[in-house]
Structures are given as C-alpha cells and as structure tokens.
Amino acid sequence: MASVGSQFSTGDQGDNRRAFWRSGYSLCCKCGAKAIESKDHVAGCRHNGDAYGTTVFTCKECNWTTSFQYDDAAETYYYETSRWRQEAAEARRSGQTG
Ligand SMILES: [Zn+2]
C-alpha cells in the first residue's frame, strides 16, 4: 500500500543531475536557461519538526524536469548529492597529495 506523502523521484535521474547540482540547482542542463522553477512536495514531518520530501525542479524554457529528495535531518539537505560532494572532496585531496 502506498502511503500518503512518500518520497518520490521524477524526471531526469541520469548524469545530468550532477551538472545541475554543480550549477547550484540554477541552470537547466538541457537548454542552459536560468529559468528553473522548484517546488517542494512534503512527504512528512517527524516529531521533532524535521520535514522530508522531494523537490521537483522544472525548466520553464524547455520543460526539463528532475527531482532531489530532501531531509531536514540529513547532514546534506539533498542527501542524494552527498556522494558527489564526497567524490569532489576526495578528488581535491588526491590532487594535493600527488
Ligand atoms: Zn531548459
């Protein structure tokens, strides 16, 4: 049974999201327009007030869409990006030690 307000993913879930993340969620990686509209879909709220859900990003120019799941309690708000953040940090580190 699907519970009301479960977190979901929609739109482009491929590598384009990473470029989008790098642009600060502001540039469409399909047409390059800075016309991104974001909408939060709250999935739920914990007893301590932490909300979680999905933010859907849509380009108003070309209708490109992607989504990121968020969690107030997570170390990284859009926790799906924490892996990229880690990889970027590691790349920086290995560059310095070499
Ligand atoms: Zn676009």
Describe the 3D structure.
23% of the residues lie in helices and 27% in strands. The longest helix is centred in the last third of the chain and has 16 residues, at 82-97. 13% of the residues are buried. Strands 1-2-3 form a 3-stranded antiparallel β-sheet, with no helix packed on it. It is of the alpha+beta class and 98 residues long. Zinc ion binds next to loops.
Summed up:
With 98 residues, the chain is an alpha+beta fold. The protein contains two helices and three strands; from the N terminus they run αβββα. Zinc ion is lined by residues 28, 30-31, 33, 59, 61-62, 64.
With helices defined by DSSP (H or I, 4 residues minimum), what is the helix count? Answer: 2
- If you compute it from the alpha carbons, what radius of gyration comes out, rounded to the nearest whole angstrom? 15 Å
- Helicity level: 10-25%
Mean pLDDT over all positions: 92
Total DSSP E strands = 3
The dominant shape is flat
Biggest beta-sheet profile: 3 strands, antiparallel
